[in-house]
Design goal:
single chain; mainly alpha; 83% helix
Length: 251
């Protein structure tokens, strides 16, 4: 059943982070790097296409970001936002306490942060597409850093609700080609409307700080990550995980 499948995955993640924290941390770092690879592709093509038409650039950016989650799933990395679905289910089912999964979340989030910062910074330092990417990146940063708190939280809830749907599907669908197609389609649903994924935002902010330095407001960056992370947790752990638990639990 769906609940057992997802719950087993969550228990394995918590156990691995407890028994082999360094190995788990590296898997989380790799997830941040993989997300960065997808960001590089999206920002590169988006910035090039934006020269032709800004809306075309936005669509190109959105269509390719599904690569991030394909890499995370197929290469068995650990992404914080997806873990908000799987690791909370053993808590709902009283096999773990909420405090038991917090070290897992912290370790995974930290590893994602490290990977995201490394690859986002290196991309800008490489100088690749330096005539196109900064302008495109600047427009994204304006949107990300000029936010209404409630709207940011709602965007983040919707984002991880959608991301965790993709994660849910990845556990149920066995055919790899089908997974790839589904990921690309589902992920467009959160990228195109501009919803906020806390780990993807880390890559964007790392790129922005490397490209523009003190021109960016650090306080706004921190606040964005705090509120987007909070919204992502709600989106995965409550909006999706709780209904899944209530539907599939044993009576």
């Amino acid at each position: 059943m769906d609940l057992e499948l997802l719950e087993e995955a969550g228990l394995k993640k918590v156990k691995l982070s407890k028994d082999e924290p360094f190995k788990y941390f590296l898997k989380a770092v790799m997830a941040g790097l993989y997300l960065g690879v997808a960001s590089i592709l999206s920002y590169s093509l988006g910035s090039v296409m934006a020269v032709i038409d800004p809306m075309l650039g936005k669509i190109a950016f959105s269509v390719l970001f599904g690569l991030a989650f394909i890499l995370v799933v197929f290469l068995n990395a650990e992404l914080f936002t997806g873990n908000c679905l799987t690791t909370i289910l053993p808590v709902y089912n009283k096999k773990l306490r909420f405090v038991d999964i917090l070290p897992n979340w912290l370790l995974c989030y930290t590893g994602n942060f490290v990977g995201a910062i490394i690859i986002g910074s290196l991309f800008i330092l490489s100088g690749s597409l330096s005539h196109q990417v900064p302008d495109f990146l600047s427009s994204v940063l304006v949107y990300k850093l000029d936010f209404d708190v409630l709207q940011l939280i709602i965007r983040s809830i919707l984002c991880n609700f959608i991301v965790c749907i993709a994660s849910y599907i990845s556990y149920k669908v066995k055919d790899e080609a089908a997974k790839v197609i589904i990921f690309f389609v589902v992920i467009i649903a959160f990228v195109l409307p501009g919803f906020d994924h806390s780990i993807a935002n880390m890559v964007t902010f790392a790129m922005g700080l490397t490209a523009f330095g003190n021109a960016l407001d650090i306080t706004q960056i921190v606040l964005n990550l705090v509120f987007s992370t909070f919204g992502n947790i709600i989106g995965g752990s409550i909006f999706l995980a709780l209904p899944v638990y209530l539907i599939h639990r044993s009576n």
